[in-house]
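haha ok so turns out i had the wrong file open the whole time. this is the CORRECT one, sorry everyone. sequence first:
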Amino acid sequence: MTGLDEVLAGIASRAERHDREGDFAFEAFEDLHAAGVLALTLPREAGGRGAGLAETAAVVTAVGRADPSVALVTAQYLMTHAALARPDNPWPAHVRGRVQKSAIEGPALVNALRVEPDLGTPARGGLPATVAAREDCGYRLTGRKTYCTGIPGLRWMLVWARTDDPEPLVGSFLVEAGGGGYRVERTWDHLGMRATRSDDVIFEGAWIPGDHAVEVAPAGMPPTGRGATFMGWNNVLIGAVYHGVAQAARDWLIEYLGERTPANLGRPLATLPRFQAAVGEIEAWLLVSDRLLESAARAVDDGDEAAMARSGLAKHTVTGNAIRSVEAALALVGNPGLSRANPLERHYRDVLCGRIHTPQDDTVLTGAGVAALGPRAHS
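then structure:
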């Protein structure tokens, strides 16, 4: 990919400003597109690289090291295009082709809008309140979505909704930005990942052509296009985002300990065994995460269904290690680490957001425990 190191350095140099102002990093996606990152998971026949999860995870980790808000939007975009490229993808071919073509022409970001104020995350069940009402040749969409990650920069929105049929269909309806019938309400004012601009979107009769009901099925059936492979991509790439944060925190810590020379010591903190051992523990956590992400990604690329089923444990472990690493860095540094003049404070706020992504820790651990206990879990 052309000039990626330079692009990442630029993204990192602007991360503090975007975090402080809480605005979206439009220029980061222009630069990532120019470098070829946004074509990474597009199929070769559509002008992309056709990359697998292992290569993609390495790139997302590097972007997360520069700015995790940019990395999260990038990860969700790349996994969507990876799903589009699969031969079993249910989208109409001409709709899929149009979305893929737009991604080659410019930074045409795409993401799923699934969460609602009353329902919470759809991964925990229930019907969406957002309704796609049938009209001739299409639908009218009404409802409110929250935590719409990257919404200022999205070209395409995959809106999770139900039809108004007596026996509703549930799934994703593709909405192209700029078509009217919806508005964005600036609600995102979170502790971390501030530049994702994960605001609310209120749909007020947005028109959707009939062929843009791209992933729908009767209520109660598994959602099409979101099987084990998709969840494997999701788990690995979410882990990669926060692994990148932990790497950035480690890099800052090493530089700080090498430069910080208290007057009563007369030499840098990096020379003290206590600090050396603590940094060594951080290195151990990061090494485990490196190997977990690499092995989980390659297993997904190889079609290992058993490993895909365990990918949630990889995400849980990697994000936990990332949080531990940044917390350990803060404990070593003390007050300077919590100063907004230093990036460690931002890394800490960002890494804590690793706990909230689907599947969440309780779901992952309960599922893993039930699988390990087998019939004993149901006696």
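The chain has three domains: 4-107, 112-218, 228-373.
again sry for the mixup
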